[in-house]
Amino acid sequence: MCPHSLSLHTLEHHDAFIERHIGPSVEEQQAMLEATGFQTLEDMIQRTVPASIRCDIPAELDTPRTETETLERLKAIMSQNIVKRSMIGMGFTDAITPNVILRNVLENPGWYTAYTPYQPEISQGRLEGLLTFQQMIMDLTGLELANASLLDEATAAAEAMTLCKRMSKAKHANVFIVDEQLHPQNISVIQTRAEPLGIEVVIGDVASLMAQHNYFGVVVQYPDTLGEIKDYQALIQQAHEQKALFCAAADIMALVLLKSPGDLGADVVFGSSQRFGVPMGYGGPSAAYFATRDAFKRSVPGRIIGVSVDSRGKPALRMAMQTREQHIRREKAMSNICTAQALLANMAAFYAVYHGPEGLKIIASRIHRLTNILAAGLSSKGVTIVNTHWFDTLTLELGFARDAAYERAAELGINLRKIGDTRLGITCDERTTREEIHTLWKALLGETHHLDMEALDYQLIENGTPALPASLLRENEILTHPVFNTHHSETEMLRYLKKLENKDISLAHSMIALGSCTMKLNATAEMIPVTWPELANMHPFAPREQALGYQQMIDELDQMLRAITGFDAICMQPNSGAQGEYAGLMAIRNYLRAKGEGHRNVCLIPTSAHGTNPASAAMVDMQVVLIDCDAQGNVDVEDLRNKALAHKDDLAALMITYPSTHGVFEEEIKEICAIVHECGGQVYMDGANLNAQVCISKPAEIGADVSHMNLHKTFCIPHGGGGPGMGPIGVKAHLVPHLANHPVVQVNNDNQNNTAVSAAPWGSASILSISWVYISLMGGIGLRQATEVAILSANYIANRLNEHFPVLYTGRNGRVAHECIIDLRPLKERTGITEEDVAKRLMDFGFHAPTMSFPVPGTLMIEPTESESKAELDRFIEAMVQIRQEIAAVETGEMTAEQSPLRHAPHTQADLMDANWDRVYSREQGAFPAEWLKDAKVWPSVNRIDNVYGDRNLFCACVPVEDYR
Ligand SMILES: *Cc1c(COP(=O)(O)O)cnc(C)c1O
């Protein structure tokens, strides 16, 4: 027992967190230290981390707190939020999360702790959920192809613009036409993204702008931000005559009743899926969707799930066409999306699965009917409704009476939207009731309106409902696939969700040692507050005075992150690391321009960098110049110096990951930063590896000007099977005036005119609470210990595996940082056994493979994190050693690579049941290679998947299995 936790134990509840978060006990840590040749953790730090960058535990960080105490404190903070009914609209709408989905998906570690499905054989459950999401989006949008989610609607709008730019045949056009009735945050993010790409954005009435400009694309909101529904068919035709493309941001619930934009001829349809059962969360997380024509499939942003076959010819899912993505194409990637919103896309898909097409029609029709009753009552009393058509949103013209009406509604517990000086917006949603309509009448008409809801409803039914334009009523069937027509009882739904969950490996099964991704414990105490109503049911544009709890929590997290990183300010807006990179490089770009050095556009990036780095540089129009790495995996300082000097007149930035993606603390990091500064550039530190630095060194003190923090890596937000995440950036003071702001809610008084990088002012605000809880529970002492044990665990694994698989790079004294790369290339050379064979064979042992072939092809990068016990580390090591012995059998000629269990991995129950077992090894060796598997075995639900087949025969929709065969 370490001394500080002893003292905690004296009078506190027995729920001190540190030793729950940190896997190895003090005794185990001692054994690991001995095995690695260190005396103490302090000794280890001194021998692995360069003295020049070490720091003490930041004094601003609190002492650790127990789980009880922390949750009580957060409850007290968050109960300052006043949770009113928000009928503000603008792309965020209250929803009812079906409880079966709330508890069994959103609150279930089997779903939320899984990793992005790069290893598809043990990810078929969430891949099926995402394929269902794609099918749902295709049905609702009327387009042929949908992706598996984007970060939010506003970034999807920007992606729509760049897809138009790539695919439009109007090659000389440079104008993107944006309808003035888009949600303001969509316009703002489009503006942010367009500027560095040199795209001219014109905003106004689409029809007249189309007559004036030579444009390549158009975007409208359907229904628009005021609730109006327009028939764009003629304009779409006109755009196509100009060889331009037409995009629509569409409300997913309205699409249940409305003719799809695809049927009207639109080329891209995107939007938010939040109102399909996902809480608003003060801005997120929720999933955006993106659909387009099949012809543009190679240009689609984000991930696409596709159907392929496994080695037995059985249909099997995996991520398709990854060659479009930044891992492969780097600065030429179609988009820069790594972490997306997989968990929330799955929730939206399950909402549709649970309700089915009939249930969705009932929900959408009910919302519309209540809106109609509201409107009929208001018109009958002489209130001017601005819209001629609507689905769920009315814009009222109230003149001088507006503010009083707004206040009365607020007093009665309802937030409405102020539009201009005299208008009021009201958006009905799934939670709207008859009583609420009465309340709205009361707010807008006074106590004595004498309206009779039943009579109004009856009249409306008698006369039909012309609020939806007759030409735009949906005529075709949606969601006809069996998956949407089967699981409507809770029993069926529960079993369906459990069946999918059981196909996947998550942290609920075994360690997921994904180098660079820091798959540590996502503690239950950290997750519990996310679904508290005070967090879940807040609209991001609710009045600030109703969100004091959120403000305090976010401010405190801001302070904690500043203490940890040493930066002067934090921007909480980016929804992923890649978005943080973009936001940070934009701040650099705008800073240089403000200084009159806008010509600086060269971005130095080491060859070992993550694909998002060059992709981000390209998004801000920087020129990527690659820096070599030396034989030890360090940035080649001479090469860096030469290139920085050669570009000293046009150097904008260096992007560098620290500790390096090669898993070492480079000694020269300070010198590297100094060289870049001397040559007039700024240092962007990719903070994905911050887990090796927390409370040991600070990015800002090392020399970084800006850095993102992947809160879903270092600070415990779960990976969700491929999102959500948060990538806030820390900056030094000189960059503060150039940070993102927001058009609806000012987040920073120092830069009020700046545009946004995300739809919501504080990104996915609700999950910021996860990192707040983690840091509060750990305190400075616990965080330091976590970093130490993360480094210890990596060195322990490196040390134990080194004799079996050479560790590729080490730093000072032959040590690694918090992860290590093992080199499989020599074995591959000798035996033909690949890193993929090893990755798939690990599944037979119940493990998810480490990161494959990044940053070095033919290697595995192992990051155990501090949360895994010594027993789990040993189990993983044992699996790897046994795999090494199986490779040896190929080396000695006992069997060929093709015959070996490595090549046949993973083994399924179908393999074992096969009457013609003709392998050179036993069934037992195939499926039960270790003793522990007899106690608990995760069965991959498919055999090895053929990626090439899937990409050649691209198929990205749900089809009954029989049809596919
Ligand atoms: C994870 C990672 C990123 C990207 O972060 P996302 O949150 O997935 O967008 C960038 N760089 C490195 C080194 C990473 O490991």
Automatic annotation (TrEMBL):
One GO CC term on file: glycine cleavage complex
Enzyme Commission code: 1.4.4.2
Keywords carried by this UniProt record: Oxidoreductase, Pyridoxal phosphate
Modified residues (N6-(pyridoxal phosphate)lysine): 713
The keyword Oxidoreductase is annotated on this UniProt entry: yes
Domain Glycine cleavage system P-protein N-terminal: 19-444, 479-757
Cofactor list: pyridoxal 5'-phosphate
Gene3D superfamilies per the UniProt record, alphabetical: Aspartate Aminotransferase, domain 1 (3.90.1150.10), Type I PLP-dependent aspartate aminotransferase-like (Major domain) (3.40.640.10)
One term of GO molecular function: glycine dehydrogenase (decarboxylating) activity
Residue span(s) of domain Glycine dehydrogenase C-terminal: 786-907
GO biological process: glycine decarboxylation via glycine cleavage system
Catalyzed reactions per annotation: N(6)-[(R)-lipoyl]-L-lysyl-[glycine-cleavage complex H protein] + glycine + H(+) = N(6)-[(R)-S(8)-aminomethyldihydrolipoyl]-L-lysyl-[glycine-cleavage complex H protein] + CO2
NCBIfam families linked to this entry: gcvP, PRK04366.1
Function recorded in the entry: The glycine cleavage system catalyzes the degradation of glycine. The P protein binds the alpha-amino group of glycine through its pyridoxal phosphate cofactor; CO(2) is released and the remaining methylamine moiety is then transferred to the lipoamide cofactor of the H protein.
Assembly and oligomerization: The glycine cleavage system is composed of four proteins: P, T, L and H.
Family: Belongs to the GcvP family.
Record-given protein name: Glycine dehydrogenase (decarboxylating)
Gene: gcvP
